[in-house]
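Teaching assistant's notes for section 4

Start the section by putting this record on the projector. Ask students to predict, before seeing the second block, whether Phenolic acid decarboxylase will look compact or extended. Collect guesses on the board.
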Amino acid sequence: MTAPLPAFAGHTYLFQVDNGAAFRNTYSADGLRLRWDGLGESAGQWEDVELHVAQVAQDIYFVSWTEKSGITVSHVMDLAAMTVRAFWTYEGEGGRVGELHTGTLKAEA
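Reveal the predicted structure now:
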């Protein structure tokens, strides 16, 4: 039995993070990959990553990936409210650093 496609599959969203960061997130048609493009201060940065996805409720998805740099990112995406709760970790001075953020999504055509 195959899982149904996530509602974000094949769509692109502008993701505005509470810390001022912004990304254009483009999801593959099968919902298994993400290409994120940094905007603003992160312009020119991008990566295509493999996703781990679980639907946790109607229009709510847990999405996680690991980037080449070692950064790990986990999102809880609420597509009804167009919000995201994000947690990412990265190597910092003295060890691993974790940050919890909120953000908004805006669908792009």
